[in-house]
Structures are given as structure tokens and as C-alpha cells.
């Protein structure tokens, strides 16, 4: 089967690790922030992922999509850290009552979508971010998360149901 | 998609875009370079040039790998066709594949007793477990008419002549005093079974159920599956979780297990149930390295919980069916139920 390689991907193969990182870190940090919900956690996850990628760069850069590899590591690094911290999902009501504060800006965020994201387990949250921020297809998301497409669809569907309910409640209050 | 769904999707995208814009992308990231023992600081800003500072002392960076473990591929055991491998604590032994799983002798009030099956006349491998509330003194049990192997029976090493031409051989196989007993009227069978006894490398012989590293996965993701196996543990009289059963599974079991469990709903906290933990381990190629990588799940069968790195999920019967064979169901108290 021929693998279609984009110009961007082909160029990545010739890039040194440093050059690739220079170009990609801002986007990775934004992605990691959306997955983790925290500036600090995003930095940790990206650092872990890049350290790992650096070790294996000779092989990683020859893949069709180094971005997918590093994004997968960002998600997995966050999941591992999340488990070790013993964290759990928070019900939306609890998040609302606690007034979620965005540590990056110190501003209390009130939108329903972000509130619901804050309650999702990391893998499910990553699926939502990959779908609606990175605009990936379900097959690509499944590859990154290491799960089946059916699982990805289920993750996204359940998240949307929760967001729809939260938005309806928010819209009803207004 | 309906107009309402379009609106929902638009709001989701808008929210994510807004929050993505809030992150500080100019922070200095710390990337530990391999081989050089140097630490590289990467400072990003509007300027494309990279600033590198070489630290005299390397500050360790947390690399979230599979917890420093060097995963070994499960030892490839040469098992002749029509035979299978049984695992118990530190040892493995081969028995004919068609044998049943039953209860081996236990020591009670300085007597040997057996609490469970199989039916008389059925060849079996027995473990010192409670399969039933009904216990029979071994000295009062009918004479053996089918061969058997006992793992870790409280029997003195040596050879005993039994009725029906049967001979029972017991050997002590390790420094902990673990024994293997084989009873049969076929001397070649006895010799073959005893010759197959060895130190097992499939599973850790004990686990700490509260060890957070029990569940792990490789950060990089995994390549092609190399092997999938399970290790089952039950607490002993000192509450130490020791290996009571192990089995190498087929790749189709892995596929079926992933399909049955990946999107399972969240599970609740631990409950009070007959104990038994099953650790499932998938060993795969490392896509970008030379060493294999492992991913593990822990199934608490009694409480219906499956723990993965993604959290605690409900352990469904459908998921259990992908890896639980008759041997496991006959051995783990969580399947057998409260006894004794």
C-alpha cells in the first residue's frame, strides 16, 4: 500500500530534532494545555514527550507523521501523571461550585464546554481535543490513543451529550 | 447532522480555540539529551533562534516510561504438543493438555484433606485451594484410578506405593519448600512431569496490589503485539498476593479483550468480595526502539473492576470471557466464591 506523504511530512524527515521542536512546540503546548487543563501539566507532558522523542529521533523523523507520535506521547504522559496523582473525574456541578480557574491566566472560566472538559477522564478529553481542535479523523485519533475507532466515537459522543446537557442548562439560566 | 448539532460543534470548537490561545508558549522547556549527560534548555519566543544553556550538573527530568522496568519477553517454554504449562508461585510444570483442574491436599489439624474436585477417575492438576465447602480426608478418599499432579501439597518428599499399582512421587523443588507431586501407574509419565518442573519466568511470583506501578503503559504507544498473558494472584494466610495461575493467551484474545474493555463505563470503588487479581500483560514491539514494551491491566474479578492507565472501568463478563479459561475459573476464589 502506498503511503501518501505530505510535503510537510517529507520535510520533517530532513529536519534535525532542534529544528522540528522549534517549529512545533507552540502547537504542542496548546494541544497539551487543552488535554491537561493546566499550563504546568502541559509543560510537564510536552517535556516528557520531547525528551522521549529526542532519544528516538532518528527513527521518529522517518515516520509519516512525527506529530502524531509526539501527540500520543503527550497524551500518555499526562495519563500516567494523572493516575499517579490519584486524581478522579469531577462531576460538573462540583467543578461549577469550585469555580474552575485557568492557571494560565488566573481568570475564572465559565463556559460550559470547558467545564465539561474539566470533568472528563484524560483519554476521553484527548479524543475531544483531537477531534474538535486538531480536526483529526476518527481513524487518526484511534491511532494516537491506541484504541479502536469505536472507542473514539464513544468517547466523543458521551462528551457531546454531557456538553449538550450543560449548555442547555446554561442557556436556560440566561 | 442537525442544525442543533452544528451549533454544538461550533461552540465546542470555539471554546477550545479560545482556551488554546491562553497558554504561554514562550516558556523554557527542559529536554534531557541522551548520551551527553547535558541538559538543554529550549527557550521559545518570537525570535526563531534557539538559546542553549549547558548545565554543569544534569538535573534529572521525569521521563514517564514504563517505570524503569526493563520488560522481558515472556520466556518461551518449549511445551510439547498435547501438553500445557501450569504456573504456581515460583515454579512451572507441564501436564497433559486435557487434564482437569482440581483441588490438591491441604493440611488441617495435622491431617491431609481435599476440598473440591474433580470427579474420581479424572486426571487433574490440583492446587492447595478451597474449591468447595465439602472436604474429604485424603486417607479416606477412594484410591486413585487416574493420574494427578499436586502443586505445593503438604506432602513429604519421597515415593509412596499406592493401591491399583499407582506410585506417588513428591519432590521439593525450591528453597521455599515448594513441592510437586505426581501420582500415576505410568512411570514414564511421572518422570516426564517431574523433568518438566522449572523456575517460571512468565509472572512475578508475588505482587503488591497497592503498587501504583502495577498498571502501566508505554508512553510511545505500541507496535505489533508479540505476546499476551495473564497472571492470577490470591492472598495467602499472611495476605501476601502470590501467583496461583498463569497462562499465555492468543493474540485474538487480546483483540477481543481490547474491543470488550476499551470503552467500558467507569467502575466504582473496591468492594468486599472473594479475593483475586488478574494482571493482563501485552508485550509489543517498540515502534521506535529495539526493546519490547509492555502494557498492563489489573482485573479485580470479585469487584468487577478493570484498572488501566485510563482509570477504573467496569469489568464486564464479555471482557472476562476473552481471557478466563476453565483453569482460571477453577482456581481463583473470585470465580469460585466464598468457601471454607
Structure description:
The complex is a heterodimer of chains A (174) and B (340). With 174 residues, chain A is mainly α. Chain A contains ten helices and two strands. Chain A has a two-stranded antiparallel sheet with strand order 1-2. In chain A, a hairpin with a 4-residue loop joins strand 1 (101-102) and strand 2 (107-108). In chain A, helix 2 packs antiparallel against helix 3. The longest helix of chain A is centred in the last third of the chain and has 25 residues, at 149-173. Chain B is α+β, with helices and mostly antiparallel strands and 340 residues long. Chain B has two domains: 3-199, no CATH class; 206-336, no CATH class. Chain B has helices at residues 3-20, 187-196, 251-261, 317-321, 326-331, 333-336; strands spanning 28-32, 39-43, 83-88, 91-96, 100-103, 106-108, 111-114, 124-127, 136-137, 148-151, 158-161, 167-172, 179-184, 198-199, 206-207, 225-235, 241-249, 277-284, 293-300, 305-308, 311-314. Chain B is elongated. The interface between A and B is large, with 66 and 52 residues.
Q: Cα distance, first to last residue of chain A?
A: 54 Å
> What is the helical fraction of chain B, as a range of percent?
10-25%
Which whole number gives the mean pLDDT of chain A? 79
Outline of chain A: globular
Element layout with pairings:
The complex is a heterodimer of chains A (about 170) and B (about 350).
Chain A lengths: L6 H8 L2 H20 L2 H17 L1 H4 L5 H19 L7 H7 L2 E2 L4 E2 L3 H8 L2 H11 L5 H8 L3 H25 L1
Antiparallel strand pairs in A: 1-2
Helix pairs in contact in A: 2-3, 2-5, 2-8, 3-5, 5-9, 7-10, 8-9, 8-10, 9-10
Chain B lengths: L2 H18 L7 E5 L6 E5 L39 E6 L2 E6 L3 E4 L2 E3 L2 E4 L9 E4 L8 E2 L10 E4 L6 E4 L5 E6 L6 E6 L2 H10 L1 E2 L6 E2 L17 E11 L5 E9 L1 H11 L15 E8 L8 E8 L4 E4 L2 E4 L2 H5 L4 H6 L1 H4 L4
